[in-house]
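Continuing from the previous page...

OK, I double-checked the sequence for Mini-circle protein against my notes and this is the correct one:
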Amino acid sequence: MWADPADDPRNSEGTSPDGELATLEDYLANYRLTLRMKCEGLDAEQLARRSVPPSTMSLLGLVRHLARVERDWRNWITEDEPLSKLYGARDADFDGAVADPAVVEAAWRDLEREQAALDSELAAHTDLGERLGRQGIAVRELQVHRVEEYARHCGHADLLRECVDGRVGQ
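Thanks. Re-ran it with the corrected sequence; updated structure tokens here:
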């Protein structure tokens, strides 16, 4: 097992949260934490390693990708001018995931900043049926999409981590 259940910081035991929004937020928080756990203890080279050639996917690329999509989701819910692309051109989140400690540090800062910004904006919208932004996306749809995106990429992270050092997930 990845983590001893007694030491696992994710809420996998005990009472689940009450309500749909609290449940979605709990799942999202746990998947975010899972991604961090999959990356713990690795150096810049290991995080940037593209373990499944010819794919450009790496653990560091996933961190950068999720920072990018958190920003993109903010653009979905705003009436204002869209924020600029976080890493520029298409696939730059993965292509720019190079084995440089400064790139790793920046990626984690970007992810934390973008998560906090979207979380803050969504905190004012607790009605899951409320529609936001120019496209009128429902808060529920966005929250489910966020959970789905992190869950899918945590599955990728399991495989990438196993290729790096043999450690397998749960």
